[in-house]
Amino acid sequence: MMSSKRHFMVAASDRQKVEDIIKACARLYVMPHFRQLKEEHISFKNDDPNNPVTIADEQSEIYLESKLTDLIRGSLVVGEENVEKTPEVLEYLRDPHNVVWVIDPIDGTRNFKDGDETFCIIVALVAHGETQLGWIYNPNTDTMAFAAKGEGFYINGEKVELDSRAKLEDGATGYTRSKYASKLEGVDVESLGCSGLEYVRIASGKALFSLYGYMKPWDHLAGTLMVQEAGGYVRKFMGSGYNPYDQKGGLISANSEDTWRTVKKHMDQVRSQSQPDNKPK
User: Fold this and answer.
1) What is the mean pLDDT of each successive set of 10 residues along the chain, which is 281 residues long?
2) Hey, what domains does the chain have and what are their CATH numbers?
3) Strands, E, within the chain: which ranges?
4) pTM for the complete prediction?
């Protein structure tokens, strides 16, 4: 492996090793628990019933951390479950000298817990302060999505590029739980409860946008790289770029800048209409 000023070059053989590690993780620690969870295998973060963690999340993250850090000497890990216990590891992403694996061992844990197949494993590699590589694996369909900065977006090895001419008016799908974009005219707005698979659908042209206010790096780094490498447009709500350490500012990802601006305009209009009238009477 070698690095340049902006790109962190990882040999094709090592990229394949990452794919193999992710697939092995799914085979050994995720799928054996799918639809087989017992009550003692499930807990809830901060006693929130909407924020479960399972034995599969915990075992998968331990496995991925061990195997991935072996690939790059001195690399670090920011994983969803270890951040819960040691939040200061998020600071790894602020130092551009660090090489950091960002892991979501099961994205869509609530779906996984409920026996719904809408979940995936997400891994991103951050170096020089930027997301360099991203993998999103759907073990139910054996579909591996991959992106490399400056090299494009691939599904099972086949390069995929977006058609930026697709418009919201054509009757497409967008993803959000936000009330600010839930009433876009002519658009089917929903949430899969799994940001990774939402991003793959946007990057492959099956949906046109996603809007998130909640920004955790394990949810978004790999997916936003895929959308951008496929030819899409990703910015925070105020129009600035998205960096690995950003956790505030909201995020809109879209198939094109035109779609991004349409979603943003609608969001701003709804937000302004929902503000109380504080003008003096």
Assistant:
1) 56 92 98 93 78 93 97 95 93 96 97 97 97 98 97 97 81 82 75 96 95 94 98 96 94 95 88 62 39
2) 2-160 (3.30.540.10), 168-274 (3.40.190.80)
3) 2-3, 8-9, 42-44, 52-54, 76-79, 100-107, 120-127, 130-138, 143-148, 152-155, 158-160, 173-176, 188-190, 209-212, 233-236, 251-254
4) 0.92
